[in-house]
Design brief:
about 525 residues, mainly alpha, five-stranded parallel beta sheet, 25 helices, about 60% helix, elongated
Length: about 525
């Protein structure tokens, strides 16, 4: 199995883009910089962020008190539903700066001052609605509401000694409920207006970074997983810290999701598309897109994932796997000029290449289909999920003592994932109506594919380049009992038994419906 999370190793040839982003930060000097990494779901944004971070960490001793960077990660999705996104980011930044100043034993007082200003902004956001409640004579919730209510009661009861004593006690009890941080903020003299507080916060932030002689680099990830309020709240918080000298923000998000969040934020207000675009563009100085994977990249990615599994299963030695990975990555860097052949993959693993023949064959044959298929389109996360599902089915097949080879499972699962429902049911029907579980129509099709003859669809649902390419994949499935394989795919199919139980009329209706649905889909 492969973890569906960001990878620390560069298996996708993202290194050049990561190097470019890291160099932009390194060469910016004290100038503030904001880089946006955009790409669709599962395209590898988080992996690219990790690679940039690794580039900046190279050659830096973490114990060095004069390190030129303070690196920190912020994942807004983790705070969603628990804390205001704006405050969460500001608090995370202030905590990181206090931690670093304490470690360096330098300018701790300035770091603490900045942290207090962050808390004051939070306090102001909490107090404002409470003050509004007090002003109109209603009751606000929470410890602050209790405190303000008690203070209000104390003022109104000043002339009544008994009430004054009772309200004084209420004030003391309400104050005791406040956190130490909030008590500290209340007890200090602060600026008189919110604009002045924001100006003071930015000034304290800039002065602290200047005194520490560092650049703060903030990696903001998973923003496109957040609800619109959280995504916009995080971006709004970043505006308070953006364009301050010695700062760099690297923001990973699906740009289309952010645009959707902006529209949702301004729901009910007429907003032009240009304004939606400019909202994000004003935050991002340098946009970078995650490179789309081509056939060579996917072929190398599959080879590396499958040979990694072979090493874990004991089929391939650790030394051969490590050396092979290094060679495949070398091939990938030069793939723009000559591509990656099956022979080149075999040579990468040298003496033990026979041990991973099937794995390399699968990578070589599967890559074109995983890139050209609209359902997968070379998406790294979907490729991992495809392989993980394959491993689960292989384990189930072994437990059920099904005589199935990995290549057969790969071929059927690919068909299940990428073919239309009507095409998959056509295959299911052929297997269900044959006593031996054979799909007899495949024999002529696979013979024609092997001879490079013109492809003739056996059914309208089998029209399209995918089916023609799929038939060329090894192994041949004609003449094999496919009932075990389709049993593992029963979540997609009707189920062989269920199909057999239908009457002849019902089967005709079902087939006509599937065919009509398929034709409609082809016309759209």
């Amino acid at each position: 199995m492969w973890h569906d999370i960001e990878a620390e190793a560069d298996l996708l040839n993202f290194g050049l883009v990561a190097n470019a982003a890291a160099n932009l930060i390194k060469n910016a000097g004290n100038t503030p910089i904001t880089i946006g990494i955009s790409g669709g779901w599962g395209a590898g944004k988080s992996t690219l962020v990790k690679l940039v971070q690794a580039q900046l960490e190279q050659g830096i001793d973490k114990g060095d008190k004069k390190s030129p960077y303070i690196l920190m990660e912020f994942n807004a999705w983790l705070y969603q539903g628990y804390e205001d996104a704006r405050q969460a980011l500001l608090q995370a930044v202030s905590d990181r700066l206090v931690e670093e100043a304490t470690r360096r034993k330098s300018f701790v007082d300035k770091a603490v001052d900045f942290a207090k200003r962050v808390k004051l902004l939070k306090f102001g956001r909490i107090v404002a609605p409470v003050v509004a409640h007090v002003a109109v004579g209603t009751v606000a919730a929470g410890p602050l509401g209790t405190l303000f209510g008690a203070v209000s009661g104390l003022v109104h009861a000043f002339a009544d000694e008994e009430k004054r004593e009772a309200n004084l006690k209420a004030v003391q009890e309400a104050y005791a409920e406040l956190s130490p941080d909030l008590k500290e903020v209340i007890g200090e003299k602060k600026e008189t207006s919110l604009p002045k507080e924001i100006e003071g916060l930015r000034k304290a932030f800039a002065e602290l970074l200047e005194k520490l002689e560092v650049r703060l680099v903030v990696f903001v990830d998973d923003l496109d997983r957040c609800l619109p309020t959280t995504a916009i709240g995080t971006l709004e918080a970043m505006r308070l810290l953006l364009h301050v000298e010695r700062t760099a923000f690297l923001i990973a998000a699906d740009e289309s999701m952010i645009r959707g969040a902006v529209r949702a934020h301004f729901k009910g207000v007429e907003i032009e598309e240009g304004l939606v675009t400019s909202y994000f563009d004003k935050l991002i100085q340098i946009p970078l897109r995650v490179p789309r994977l081509g056939i060579n990249e996917v072929k190398a990615y599959l080879a590396l994932l499958l040979t990694d599994l072979a090493e874990r299963e004991g089929k391939l030695s650790k030394e051969a796997q490590s050396a092979g990975q290094a060679e495949v990555l070398k091939l990938l860097k030069k793939s723009w000029s000559k591509g990656i052949s099956r022979e080149a993959l075999g040579e990468a693993f040298k003496a033990e290449k026979e041990a991973v023949t099937n794995e390399l064959d699968i990578a070589d044959q599967l890559a074109p289909l995983l890139v050209t298929s609209a359902e997968i389109a070379g998406n790294p996360r979907l490729i991992k999920r495809f392989l993980n599902n394959l491993m689960i089915r292989q384990a189930i097949a072994q437990e059920m003592e099904m005589p199935l080879a990995l290549e057969e499972l790969v071929k059927i699962q690919l068909f299940e994932r990428c073919a239309s429902s009507a095409a998959f049911e056509f295959l299911t029907k052929a297997v269900a109506t044959n006593p031996d579980g054979h799909a007899e129509f495949l024999a002529a099709l696979e013979d024609a594919a092997q001879k490079a003859e013109k492809y003739e669809p056996p059914h309208p649902s089998w029209s399209g380049p995918f089916y023609e390419q799929w038939l060329k994949l090894a192994p041949r499935l004609a003449g094999q009992n496919l009932q075990p394989i389709l049993h593992l795919s029963r979540d997609r199919s009707l189920g062989l038994a269920a199909y057999d139980e239908l009457s002849a009329e019902a089967k005709k209706v079902l087939e006509a419906t599937m065919e009509a649905t398929e034709r409609s889909a082809m016309l759209v």
